[in-house]
Fold these 3 entries.
Entry 1:
Amino acid sequence: MKKIKAGRQPNRSRAGDVGVAIVLMIFGAFFAFPLVYAINAAFKPLNELFIYPPKLFVRNPTTDNFSDLFLLLNKQGVITFTRYMFNSVFVTTVGTIGHIIVASMAAYVLAKYRFPGSRTFFAAVTVALMFTGYVTQIPGYLIMAKLGWTNTYLSLIIPAFASPMGLFLMKQFMESSIPDVLIEAAKIDGAKEGKVFISIVMPLVKPAILTLMIFSIQALWNNAGTTYIYRDELKMLPFALQTVGAGGVARTGAASAATLFLMIPPLTCFILAQSNIVETMASSGIKE
Amino acid sequence: MNESLNESKDLAAEKLEDLEQSVEDNATEEKTMDEMMEEFEAMESAMDRDAAMAAASTVPVAKKRRNLARGNAISGLIFVSPFIIGFLLFLLYPLQLSLRMCFCKVDAIPGAGLRLTWNNYDNFNKIFRVEPEFLQYLVEEMKRMALFVPGILVFSFFMAILLNQEFKGRTIVRAVYFLPVILASGVFVGLENNNALLSSIKDATKADSSLSSITTTLEKILLTGETGNKFFQYIIDIVGQVYDIAMASGIQIIIFLSGLQTIPPSMFEAAKIEGCTSWESFWKITFPLIGSMILVNVIYTLVDFFTRTDSNLMGLFDRTLLQRFEYGKVAAMSWVYFLIIAAILGIVMLIFSRRVYYYD
């Protein structure tokens, strides 16, 4: 992307500038609204949460909601909050790393080589993007049961490795951003496939890796893990927080704190990797 | 994103045929090569030693090249196989199992898994004739699609054009417009629906809007007018859903933006020199050149719209699956749903792909 100089376009009046800014601000407010609301709600004391008509901004911010939340979670049972936290962090980290490695390895071959069935396979992956989760839920459970993976972390981690979205994005990005000449040059210099992949392909697709990371973290972090897992001590953080939210009106404060709490990790990752993500989505859109 | 699906399927079939043929060709070639080699060797015994040396030296070179190719193939296989195995195991196998369930009566047997007994088209009979909600929700969903998809496309196109202007802090603004994509899925939506507070707010605002205001009066005037009240209803529905539409158009904006940035600025300059106004150059340059992106976006929006988890139809799937345990029915319903989506995508692709102008 070429660097764009900020400033006024020569053929537009100042009033036009202001107009564009105002329209963008109005719709920008639309887009930022859920985030702003969630942050504010988490810090509202209980009486402010039930003000009618509701206010967007908090007036007397407190951290009561958070202490309530932790109190509730610790009171809930034998399983402590840190245990759920560990489950979520562990599954998210391992699943994301594995997904990035598996998806980019397959994407590299699909993007740069032709082998019998490669196009059919990629077509199957794109079709799979269209199916909703309900179709595969029961058969998925049967497979997990056959493999003996129910009630293990494996049932959450391994399927995440082969999620089709990652392969799709990665392949599109690799096709557009890695010149074949570069790979050939490396091979002429004596690099083997593994070497080419690790020291040439992977550094070049860093934006795509960060994008995959965001999508994968988002999917895994929001997974309550209740489909294949029954033992409470192996379930994930969203499960714990959902039980808090389900507790009725009295727990509204704790529930809004929980919402914010769950939003933080994907949001932080997004802010850190923001510019790269927009770039990847853009270039994977071009090459279709 | 699936625009190239049919194309690529056809291409894949062609490619496969080509490949098979070339493999056969190769095989026959190798055979003839071997035969020639034998002949050569037979002749060679009668010839002098130099020729023998030459023949001997060509064999290892050919072997080496073949080994190299095989090595490449093996490492390629190692690279793809983890994904392929995972894909087959966790997606394709479940999909074919659910396809089979469509035509079967599925019973859960404690301790022994599921038993599938073939019952022809009974499930389909049931979902269309007995299940009252399925058809109704399906039609509702189609209506919503007719409302949402054009709304999202127009809105995101408009926003992309604005975001493509030059102004300070553009990257930050773009990031803000991508935020819903990050926040939309998963728990946030779940909590939004389950949260007692939010639902009470929703009720409150609903009560509010029943109060008569200028807009509701205007709405009534427009709707009771003789001509085109369907059209006005459509417009009013879109305006009413503008928040939902905006929330669903994060990725579409980015895709349009990338399309806008691939148009060379020199084109606009040339048009301006020829005396084109901005309005004209928008319709004559920007619009035709962004055509391929419009197709991509239509397809993305359709897929995204149909696979979102908070629709009535998904709720029905959820209830049938988790409360009534009618697996066969759910499988049949979701496959019918999938086939309808695929048909709509096919029609859209057919209509659009003829008109899209590709610029290189």
Note: The first strand of chain B starts at residue 104 and ends at 109.
Entry 2:
Amino acid sequence: MRNIRALQPLFDLAKPGRRATRFPKSDVPEVPLTKLLPATAIAEQPPALPELAEPDVVRHFTNLSTLNMSVDTHFYPLGSCTMKHNPKRNERLASLPGMLDLHPYQPEETLQGMLALLYELQQMLGEIGGLPAVSLQPAAGAQGEFTSLLIASAYFRERGENRTKVLAPDSAHGTNPASAAVAGFTAVTVKSTPQGFVDLADLAAKLDHETAVFMITNPNTLGMFEPNIKRIAEMVHAVGGLLYLDGANMNAILGITRPGDFGADMMHFNCHKTFSGPHGSGGPGAGPIAVTSVLAPYLPAPLVVREDAGYRLDYDRPKSVGRVRSFFGNVGILVRAYCYIRSHGPDGLRRVSENAVLNANYLLARVKHIFPVPQGDRCMHEFVASAAKLKTDKDISAMDIAKRLLDYGFHAPTVYFPPIVREAMMIEPTETESKETLDAFAETLFRITEEPAELLHEAPHTTSISRPDEVRAARQPVMISPPPGSP
Amino acid sequence: MPFLLNTPDDQQAMLAAIGVGSLDELFAMVPADLRLKRDLAIPPALTEIELSAHMAALARANSPAGDQLCFLGGGCYDHFVPAVVDAIAGRAEFYTSYTPYQAEASQGNLQAFFEYQTLISRLTGMEVANASLYDGATAATEAVLMSISATARHRHVVTAASVHPEYRQTLAAYLKNLGVEISTVGTPGGAITPQDLFDAVRDDTACVLVQHPNFFGCLEDVERLAQIAHDKGAMFIVIADPISLGILKRPGDYDADIVVAEGQSLGIPMQFGGPFLGIMACRERLVRRMPGRIAGQTVDRRGKRCWVLTLQTREQHIRREKATSNICTNQGLLALRATVYLALVGPQGLREVAELNLRKAHYARERFASLERFEIVHARPTFKEFVVRDRQGQVENLLADLAARDIFAGVPLGRWYPELADCFLVAVTEKRSRQDIDTLVAALAQSNRKVMVAHA
């Protein structure tokens, strides 16, 4: 049962004089502050934070949590995000004091267990990707992309080549062109065929000696394995470019095929997707990268290396692109990824992908009669259905369906992405769902299409709020609570 | 397999519905010559019991500083984390949800982001804040990129040697391909000399990036530095320590344009350096250039107050290569931890914890100064950290010797500052008692004797 009172803004719950956390009295000599700090540096008042008691804080945030859908509570088929079950054992094991309470600048002799884990994770990711050299440093997939593009530019710089362009298909995640721009390249879009594959003629026309990298997502954002991937790799390599694999969809191909084997020179993993790091309401993720041995010298520093005396952090990497964040990486998520991979082993990882692909194809088979799937009857781990016909015939949009699904207790698919499909609904069930759940979801989709359009336009009806006014939010942005005492 | 639900019967029924004969057939679109024809060469699966034992063994092979006498800092600190923070962040409705693309099913996350933004705004004295970036280093870098775009000065930025070296390395990596020159003002005295900054800032400088208190723990003369930057039309970007803002003036009070911080101090465990929390707050006029998610308040169709992700036209999923940044996944769960932490300590608690850090660090600083072997390197005022020189130049040995006795005495500085190869950085948080500090000093004195004997 929801407690409306506790959901009031934190600041409205506050009252002067309340306290939660108290700190011990100082046990060192009470020197006047002005002897320790220049008077001009000291604030007259502490920041105007709310004053709350512990029960207020607990009740407020606990009630807030009940307003969310989550993987632990609902089917969450958000395409491209791989919202699979987050194993509880990983949460417990990542929280062992021997893992959680390590300082990044402790002496390496006191970190041998952690360094062994991270070393082994480097090795396992290299094997899974078929690309032997791994950096665990990037904080998320987009940062893995960016770091790889820095590696590409360092590689070409050393070869005396000036390559300015990074190509990506029009079906790519927005992060691909954005990463290219942040890394100082010109982003060039390559067209897709009506089936959603790379248009080889357009690729050939855009590949030249200024091309540094072609970024490809494979399986792509339509959930299809690129049939010409080997040819594409050859074309990119023929002009001296590098092939980058956006690993967002690795959940489809674990132990089935490896990016290094199909011609990729660099890739990232999304540990929070493929390897079950919880998504944390937006993050943290972890975006390790794997590259060929030719590109290994350019990886960020440090890497974990193994020597006779034990494990060590190797900072002495003269050709490295440097670092893209502070400290080692998003270790808490890397530890969970390690636990996940060790829980599965080679057979288990392959079965993860088999069942992810089975679930997606089954759901596709159940819904394709109502929602055309432009790419055809088969998919990998996800598929993109179109509500375009419903939109024309009944004025029911992908957004209407997404919102109405919430009423039935399902999180919505990703909608309006990829941009190359009209009224797109990108559905990724993942392997940690049952046939019963998929059946119920499919039946709910049918039922929604038979509901009156007016009902759907107003959906959702049962959530804590109805559709928000996003235009007002953007035109008259209110991004913080008004200061205390203001009207 | 641990987390699969499909029984063999389910699989057969599903394959039949799909119209294929086997799981293998489902992968027909993967060309046969690209298929892996062997098992992945990774270790075999472990059950939960086996994995737990294996992880316990790995954990035992570590000696966690946070469980012992930890005086390590340098951007990651052994601050106290109240139990409520773990309890709330451990709510699966928070940690197993994702970016609130469907606002109606994510009001908990969105309201928490909005409250986070409000708290950060009040903490820093800025008008707006985003809903988090990766960490302090990337937040600082994104702030510099914002200033370049906002000032349309694409050639030059200024920072200082007293800024965290890993933040400066991150900045250098991000700017390398963009043709932006970075001038780094030297800080031999432990902080920036205003004249040195004045000499470094040019008419085409986009920003001045400083850290206050800085990497050495010293306070910068921020008011004068801000003036120097602004006189040349450059933005003033401050990397703050959130705990210090319980006692120090807020960056908004001394005219900073953008404030960033590492939020780890606000209820986030050290976990070997991440995931942490990149805090960013800025002036309202800069908000459309700010990277990252932003929660905004609005109303729903029934006029009820609610929250959404707003100003999304800045972001990569809409704007692609024209976006303000490539960030997608952020640090939402860590922002939640910081929100709960700040709600728990409140204004008085933040003041108290800041004072405890300050006083204990000064007590330790004086104790170090009383030992003949050591020298306090910088005479300037410090907050919770300070730099110590070992006159015997035995930093690595000394720190290893103490670590073997479960005392983590400090961070050696030689890796980043060759001129400080005989120095280390000591941090003191509210978790250290006077007795802890005395134990550290006694151990140092002992180590002192031992080395003397060895030399004799």
Note: The CA atoms of residues 146 and 182 of chain A lie 7 Å apart.
Entry 3:
Amino acid sequence: MRLSALHLPLALLCAPLLPGIINKVKAFFAGRTGPSVFQPYLDLLKLLQKGAVYSRTTTWVFRAGPIVALASTTAALVLLPLGGLPALLAFPGDLVLFAYVLALGRFFTVAAALDTGSAFEGMGASREVWFAALSEPALLLGLAAMAKQAGKLSLTSLYAALGPAVLLKPGGPALLLVAAALLIIFLAENSRIPFDDPNTHLELTMIHEVMVLDHSGPEFGLIQYAASLKLWALGALASGLLLPVRTGVPWLDLFAGFCGLFVVAMFTGVVESVMARLRLTRVSQLLAAAAAFSVLALMLVRSAP
Amino acid sequence: MGNILIAAGLLVLGGAAALFSGKNARRANFFGAGGALLGACVGLIPAVAALAGRPVHPLRLAWGLPIGSFSLALDPLSAFFVVPILGLCALAALYGTEYLLPYASRKSLGVPWFFFDLLAASMLMVVVARDSVLFLIVWEVMALSSYFLVTFEDERESVRQAGWTYLVATHLGTAFLILFFMLLARESGMTDLSVAPAMSARLASAAFVLALIGFGTKAGLIPMHVWLPEAHPAAPSHVSAVMSGVMIKTGIYGLMRALTLLGAPPAWWGWSLVGVGAVSGILGVLFALAQHDLKRLLAYHSVENVGIIALGLGVGMLGRTHGLPLVAMLGFGGALLHVLNHALFKGLLFFGAGSVLHGAGTRDMEHLGGLLKRMPWTGTCFLIGSAAICGLPPLNGFVSEFLIYLAAFLAVVQGQAAWGSVVIAALALIGGLALACFTKAFGVVFLGEPRGNDAAQAHECGAAMRLSMAVLAAGCLFVGLLGPVVLSWSAGAVGQLAALPSAESFDSWQIAIMPMYSVSAGAAVLLSLLLLTAVLRAWLLRGREIGRSLTWDCGYVAPGARMQYSASSFAQPITGLFSVFLRTRKRAAGPEGYFPGPATYATETPDVFREGLYRPVFEGALKAALRLRWIQHGRIQFYVLYIALTLLFLLVWRLGCG
């Protein structure tokens, strides 16, 4: 319990490192030095010191958007185990709550975007809900496959059980399919290439960035911070499966969890360096593929005795 | 039990007094709504007592009919339905006092109040009737009184059409129910519904299919749903709320009651409910996404939510079949709680849509927009209802969907991955699509800039309508935060459905819902984080410079309201992806020539089942009927001859067989 209280502050503290690492990797591939991995912290500090500008069209929903986005992502972290550290709150079925608090954040981000009455932000909002509708089944089916193999129903006990021993049992290797699905979902939900390009400044090609076009100052800072927390939350799901280090020594497991997250961030950087954005019509196919991976894994894994 | 009768009596009396109030709108309002409120208060007393575990004595009165009996009973299952029925009817009555007033100059309000109170009374009787003849009578009263409410604005052609569709569909459903009850009565030898007849497996399956079609028609399960998106938008909004929120649930009640009578379900019953539920849920929300009439969109969402309830029921039945009592209890519990939850948020959303219609004069979303500024109460309540119907924590929709999810995950872990994963996939897809649908509905109607003059001049509704919306919104939050409390009331009903011995049901249900305490804790954590972040934001912005300007449109200086994303464009990526099912029709006239004139673009998504399934069947029936037209020539001598010939035939037949 003492240890599980540690994960949340650590995540809140270290999450902005992830976009920093991604950018560093991208700079390396482009042959640049690139900004320091701590640059996101400096950006946040700067944003938090500014004032704000609001459109006259907007209402309180626009102001609520960043608040709900940050609060709901933090709530997801409360349910999230990392490495050997159990989550602060764990109970059978918490994986559903995890998916749905993230959906709450999405609902309000989309509503805030629509509140501006801008065609650009409406476009981003429309695409966001479209991708999310397809990635939700893939995520929950993937978690169901893991639950079936581990015989457990909460994220904490699920990830604690999925050590090398369980993964090498008959049916266990099929969970690699789930890992692939989780990585696709990680990229889609965090609006990374090949789904969305966080770097373009042409609003038509963006999804998440265009939805928050009108936010400014501290509120934009909250949104950026919430985005890095979401990278952390979904990244931990994927890395916990890809690097199943379960030594039983909490500090070692925690270290492994951190390494796993950094590996996922580097992987994202590599993907963003070597791939282009997919055409929008292809996105549904990739998300359907993720769902297909999850279903396939569900068929292949053996349920725990 | 006497209280239930008094409640029904008060409802009918109030309605009759309203009917005889003539043109006096205020008096009709007073009697109609007063009867409904008083009746609901009286009727809720025994229902709450029954939910608290106190047995309520059944009632059996003599009546003049040769068959059947007037027998009523209030077991936990009935009581669990009585609460939302009476609660929502009372709030709808309060809402109606204000909503109906603008019609008072053209119409008598006595008639709608009479039928409203009659509808409430008949729904109450449907769930307490314990005799099949009595059940069918009150079932028919319910269908007819709601028909007259649907056709309230009968000067409009579309409303009359909707009324006809409803009348035909409901009677087709009732025909299956008559067969169902006849089969039950044949097997048990009596019309009493409180004892389960001993039936062979084949007959029980036949009865199940009859009940599924008959009650499924009332509940609005696909493909028996075609009447629902026609009738619900046509009715006055408080009636739409009652019809969508609770009247279609009498179909669910009937299905549940049938399950308690038909004995242990074989696996294919559960599978068929899971299948019908998944199809209803997914297609319901897809059709909803394609609509741009706000009330029609909400009506399709009722199809979706009934689908979720059917998924829960299916999971419960499969859990029973496969000997997984925990799965069975959670599935049935989720279905039951979703009945209550849907009454709360769908009532709220229809009240909100009614307030929009009342204040802005249109329910076409493409002409609305920016209403949150003009109608802050309605907008905020509609937002709460939207988040609740998407199943988002910390609101009530999440609690019931969570129970069904948990049952499905448990099934997957315990070796029933096939149906467990179908349920998980369906619920997840429904959840994602519902989020798309309700960000569209709320965003396009209440946010941004008004897309037309009506919306720009919209006004907020009055105190009665606000109060009824606020109560429902508070109910959504209450169930979301205190789920276990509400769930413990359903212990008896879950025990009945899962066929547990009644002594055990309370304790095992308490164990089953242990995770729900953690869900409540999670909701509390979420709420406190929201509060904390809001304080953080306020603290960050304290004393800072706050600017106001136009929405940033990439340097374009004159953004107009018509440049906003519209309801159709918002949904287009998804409706395009699923166009195979939706068959959206487009009518476009693009700009042409060197000096293009105005261009138009319109889409319409008619119901695929109505167009593809029912239209050909009914057209065929009409053709067949026309063939027999030569019998009807209007000469009275021949009609007398028909009668005489029939009598002669019957006489010969009787003598020949006797």
Note: Chain A touches chain B through 85 residues (CB under 8 Å).
